[in-house]
Amino acid sequence: MTTATTQAPAINEASLHALVGGILQDLGGAFSVPLVQIGENLGLYKTLHEQGPMSAAMMASMTGLSERYLREWLAAQAASKYIAYDAETGQFSMTPEQAFVFANPGSPFYLAPAFGSAAAFQQNQEVVEQAFRSGEGVAWGDQSRCLSCAVARFFRPGYENHLTQQWLPAIEGAVGTLERGGEVADVGCGHGVSTLLMAQAFPNSRVHGFDFHEKSIEEARKHAADHRTPNVDFHIQEAKELPGQYDLVTMFDCLHDMGDPAGALRTIRAALKPGGAVMIVEPMAGDTLAENMNPVGRMYYSASTMVCVPTSLAQETGAALGAQAGEKRLRELILSAGFTSVRRAAETPFNMILEARA
Prior knowledge:
By secondary structure, the protein is of the alpha/beta class. It has two domains: 13-103, Winged helix-like DNA-binding domain superfamily/Winged helix DNA-binding domain (Arc Repressor Mutant, subunit A, Orthogonal Bundle), CATH 1.10.10.10; 113-357, Vaccinia Virus protein VP39 (Rossmann fold, 3-Layer(aba) Sandwich). Helix content is 50%, strand content 15%. The chain has helices at residues 13-41, 44-51, 56-63, 67-79, 96-102, 112-123, 125-134, 147-170, 174-180, 193-201, 214-226, 261-270, 295-313, 327-336; strands at 84-86, 91-93, 183-187, 206-211, 232-236, 246-252, 272-283, 341-347, 351-357. The strands form two sheets. Strands 5-4-3-6-7-9-8 form a seven-stranded mixed sheet, sandwiched between helices. It has a two-stranded antiparallel sheet with strand order 1-2. Helix 1 (13-41) crosses helix 6 and helix 8 runs parallel beside helix 10 (193-201). The longest helix is centred in the N-terminal third of the chain and has 29 residues, at 13-41. The model has no long low-confidence stretch (mean pLDDT 94).
């Protein structure tokens, strides 16, 4: 009688080193999450961009912060290649590209706030881990207290750089209608970043923001008051119960978070005035998992695991589309809700913009 022995497969050294190298890159990025937030919160990137090159001592003198902490922070940022270091002078600086990403809030590639989102996802670990066991959802209001603020800051640069300049002009007839004076519903508005941008750009129109999260609406109302924007208002409202009639309905990065997106779309279709349109902004994604094996897909699948799927599962129906649903699935969903046409009107590396009409 012979006994079969199982031999461990031979390790490919090159593959192993490549894997470990990639993981070390990931760990460096993960360890950098609080450091980037510190740099943003304390204005260190801004100081370095506007006043650099400089040493840690010079930065300490300018900012009044501890030189010892700054020296370590600068070293970590330079090792991450988030800032530049000159070994001959011992000074740190920022290239134009680094500043575009970390020091310029008006840049479409201002990614510093994304690190705040990553921190909020980390704070969600305990409740999401339990949801893995139960299969239940985690309500938006039960997730990290910093989440809604972090998400608003993450999306803001994209909205500020694309919404009125590219996305709305890509929706047939939308700009003309809003310039003359139309009714807009911004469904799932969160903190109202997109709502306020539209209200400010089109003062003859009335823009209404709707969201089911009470604290987000409170923040949106504060922002509207701070910006003295009279043609905007905000309401705590489920998408499936949207009141009124509108020339344009917008949905920014929220359809896939809804428990019953089909039901919401049916309600929205019924709320359109004749000739009205719906603009749906969703994360950029291919239609298959294989198409999404890239840095953007990786980021969105991770966010979807920690936030989007738990949020949807906590609601009625719990469709859990996920942040990488893809255009084909979204198109089928929209058409099944009674819309007669769907087209991709615009896109960025991070978003696809769909136009739907009844």
